[in-house]
Amino acid sequence: MELALFDFDHTITASDSYARFLRRVATPEQLARAWWTVGPWLLAYRLRLLSAERIRARVTRLTFHDRHAEDIATLASGYARDVLPSLVRPLMLEQIRWHLSRQHTVVVVSASLDLYLKPWCDALGLQLICNRLESRDGRLTGQYDGGDCGPRKVELIRQRYDLARFVRIHAYGDSREDRGMLALAHDRWYRGVHQS
């Protein structure tokens, strides 16, 4: 048995699917405030003063706090159907299908949301480890259910899979959050380049 682990944003996709989803579901008021609220956070992130985990938590809280869970789920379903296919890199889709054709266990491990990743993964027969939004009484809290999986990818992979059962592990990633996942693998690709 072999295991193939794929990051999603900027690995399977050519751009950030989560940022696009946030812009798609943000209310007009949120979009109007975004420049003043999110702009400084983005600058701090680009200057490496703010981690991906912290900015993700902030924009998630800002966008989803007190929104109707059912409304966001409906928007996510349309996003998975209408937008995600255009973001996927054809070569990565080919690589995923190559693993599937060899009966490998293929898992998307992402800090993006299950609301739109699950339909995409289900359509291809992929397993999924990702963030889920917390809700109470039908409304979103703006928090992740179970915490942000981005910095916990290795922990969550180990919880779900007995890695000793796999004769070979493949991993594909592009960011600092993927380095631990790549370290689990025999064959690793970082930003499309095979690592020895």
Can you tell me about this structure?
There is one protein chain. The chain has 196 residues and is of the alpha/beta class. The chain has a single domain, classed as HAD superfamily/HAD-like (Rossmann fold), CATH 3.40.50. Helices cover 48% and strands 21% of the residues. The protein is built from nine helices and eight strands. The protein has helices spanning 17-25, 28-46, 52-64, 69-82, 84-87, 90-101, 114-124, 153-160, 179-183, and strands at residues 2-6, 105-113, 127-131, 133-136, 139-144, 168-173, 187-190, 193-195. A six-stranded mixed beta sheet has the order 3-2-1-6-7-8. Helix 7 links the parallel strand 2 (105-113) and strand 3. The longest helix is centred in the N-terminal third of the chain and has 19 residues, at 28-46.
Secondary-structure blueprint of this entry?
Elements: E1 2-6, H1 17-25, H2 28-46, H3 52-64, H4 69-82, H5 84-87, H6 90-101, E2 105-113, H7 114-124, E3 127-131, E4 133-136, E5 139-144, H8 153-160, E6 168-173, H9 179-183, E7 187-190, E8 193-195
Helix pairs in contact: 2-3, 4-7
